[in-house]
Design brief:
CATH class: Alpha Beta
CATH topology: UDP-N-acetylmuramoyl-L-alanine:D-glutamate ligase
Largest sheet: 10 strands, mixed
Order of helices and strands: EHEHEHEHEHEHHEEEHHHE
Distance between the termini: 7 Å
Oligomer: single chain
Shape: globular
Number of domains: 1
CATH architecture: 3-Layer(aba) Sandwich
CATH superfamily: Ribokinase
Number of helices: 10
Length: 269
């Protein structure tokens, strides 16, 4: 395994600066457990969230948003219709969009929904290793939202999904793996406290949507989001006594992070 500088192939500072300059509008249809954290994370990174998840409104709003974020964590019947409506509208309007297939493979309703959404070719798919393996049809999923597989075990599945969608796939874990049909990068960062709060991965999906809203290369946007979010999490953890304080500090750390402050770290490729 070789080590190469994360820049310029993953332009984290450039993407963060673009978000702060453009303030993109991120349309997020996410789960009811984490909706507030996701909205506040999108705000903290410098974008504007809109949690429009009603049938008849989701489609029209996806057409005017800068990016769409779909998280299938608590898919009520109305939300399932809204997600499908929004994804179709995003594809028709050329709006980039992110799919987070929460707990796919374990439960039948969300698995069928996620598979139908994959056919609409999301710009970025973000999930843990077990979710990505299950979405690719190569495994049965994890334990609810918890992964039962290591990140590297999902590399083949991630690549197959990237080829299928023409976009990027981000596998979250201690070292994130981001692939598309031609490129692969592993980004170390973040902190174990992200696994001690509800919505750590969901919020990352929102950050990826903000990044792809302003930087239309999905692989670069996903990798930059992983880097930005990971560095913010590290900063938050360094001044937190536990998960409760960390959750608050994560938002502060993201909001205080500016392009010039992002360190040029090394990426594992």
């Amino acid at each position: 395994m070789t080590r190469t500088p994360i820049e310029p192939s993953v332009p984290s500072a450039e993407v963060l600066e673009e978000i702060r300059n453009q303030t993109p509008l991120v349309h997020s249809i996410t789960n009811t457990v984490t909706v507030e954290l996701v909205a506040n994370t999108i705000l903290a990174v410098g974008a504007t969230p809109a949690m429009v998840d009603i049938e008849g409104e989701a489609g029209p709003f996806a057409r005017i948003a800068s990016a769409l974020h779909i998280n299938i964590g608590t898919p009520s019947p109305e939300q399932r219709v809204a997600m499908t409506e929004a994804a179709h509208a995003a594809v028709d309007a050329g709006t980039p969009w992110v799919l987070d297939p929460v707990a796919v493979g374990v439960l039948p309703v969300r698995t069928a929904l996620a598979q139908s959404l994959v056919e609409l070719r999301p710009s970025i798919i973000r999930g843990n290793a077990s979710e990505i393996i299950a979405l690719a049809g190569l495994g049965g999923g994890g334990r609810g939202v918890d992964a039962a597989d290591a990140v590297d075990e999902a590399q083949e599945a991630a690549y197959s999904l990237a080829v299928r969608t023409g976009g990027a796939v981000a596998v979250s874990g201690p070292v994130d793996l981001i692939v598309d049909a031609e490129r692969t990068v592993r980004i170390a960062g973040g902190h174990s406290l992200l696994t001690r709060i509800t919505g750590g991965g969901c919020a990352l999906g929102g950050v990826m949507a903000a990044c792809v809203a302003v930087h239309r290369d999905p692989w670069e946007a996903a990798a930059a989001a992983s880097d930005i979010y990971g560095q913010a999490a590290e900063g938050a953890a360094s001044v937190s006594a536990g998960p409760g304080e960390f959750r608050m500090r994560l938002l502060d750390s993201l909001a205080a992070l500016w392009p010039a402050q992002l360190r040029v770290q090394e990426a594992l490729v």
